[in-house]
Design a protein that fits this description.
This protein has a single domain (3-23, 61-215), classed as Ribonuclease Z/Hydroxyacylglutathione hydrolase-like (Metallo-beta-lactamase, Chain A, 4-Layer Sandwich). Strands 1, 2, 3, 4, 5, 6, 9 and 10 form an eight-stranded mixed sheet that branches. Strands 11-12-13 form a three-stranded antiparallel sheet, with no helix packed on it. It has seven helices and 13 strands. By secondary structure, the chain is α+β, with helices and mostly antiparallel strands. The longest helix is centred in the C-terminal third of the chain and has 10 residues, at 167-176. The radius of gyration is 18 Å and the shape is globular.
């Protein structure tokens, strides 16, 4: 990592955390709070400048790099180059600058895809798995070629269930996470799991059945 990353870095002991982004999107306020009058939000627009626009809440697609003494871990992989935000959130409008936001941000902060030896997926929603894979000709390959992709078993079972995979979801799954297993880079974990020295994956279900948090 070069000097640029220091402006986006937070250290916890010997663990270094770098904030990354896969761009920003807008989520319609009416979608999340359909019964709330627009005027209610006026007093918050000045309090949180940059978080509101005419289309809704402006949301950062956050990704984190966690570097310990033994591993370099990417936490989530954003929306990716293939997904479209309106598909995930109808009536919302994308605000991303370009199709390679995360890759551009990593490059700007001196982080190469080969440095990553673990991709920790907090859950399998589309805005967290978009850069898992990159297509070369007709074959999907891991975007982070030296990494094992860590997914909680409960999420994998839920998001690969045939009842869940309708045609639209299957198309997204086939380019975002299903090939991980046949590529041999998927590692299913359960309960509390030590990802590296000082880093523990904790099962925190609710948002999804296998949602995970990272304890540093």
């Amino acid at each position: 990592m070069n000097e640029i990353s220091r402006n986006h870095r937070f250290d916890v002991g010997n663990v270094h955390i770098v904030a990354l982004s896969d761009g920003q999107v807008s989520i319609s306020r009416k979608l999340l709070f359909p019964d709330t009058p627009e005027a209610i939000w006026d007093k918050y627009k000045d309090r949180f400048p940059g978080s509101f626009n005419e289309n809704g809440f402006l949301i950062n697609l956050g990704v984190f790099l966690i570097k310990s003494s033994t591993r370099t871990i990417l936490v989530d992989t954003g929306l990716g180059p293939h997904s479209t935000w309106p598909t995930l959130w109808p009536n919302s409008e994308g605000a991303r600058k370009g199709p390679a936001e995360l890759m551009d941000d990593m490059k700007a902060k001196g982080i190469g895809v080969e440095e990553i030896d673990a991709v920790f997926l907090t859950h399998l929603h589309g805005d967290h798995v978009g850069w898992n894979l990159t297509k070369d000709a007709d074959r999907w390959n891991p975007t982070f070629p030296k990494a094992q992709y860590l997914v909680h078993r409960s999420d994998w079972e839920a998001f690969t269930n045939p009842k869940f995979l309708d045609p639209v979801r299957r198309e997204a799954a086939e380019r975002n996470y299903l090939p991980l297993q046949e590529l041999g880079v998927l590692q299913l974990i359960e309960d509390n799991y030590e990802v590296a020295v000082g880093l523990t994956a904790i099962h925190s279900p609710g948002h999804t059945p296998g949602h995970m948090s990272m304890l540093i």
